[in-house]
Structure formats: structure tokens, C-alpha cells
Amino acid sequence: MKFINIRELSTGTSLMLLKWLWITILSRQTMKESSEMSWLPR
User: Does residue 10 register a pLDDT over 60?
Assistant: First the structure.
């Protein structure tokens, strides 16, 4: 039981980490685009 719980916990944390990573990458991309747009004189 403990092993199963640990496994579930690890999978949950890994999924959360992947989600967080994806969100951070997306936010960085949008921030990059917005900063480039603002920096452009057009």
C-alpha cells in the first residue's frame, strides 16, 4: 500500500511539475512576444 501511495504521489508531483513547466514556458513565450511588440517602433 505504501509503495502504491508513493508511486501515485510521485506521478502526481511529476504531472504538477510538467504542468508548471508548460505554464512557465507559455508565459515566457507570451512575455517575450509582448516585450518584442512593445520594443518595436511600429
Answer: yes
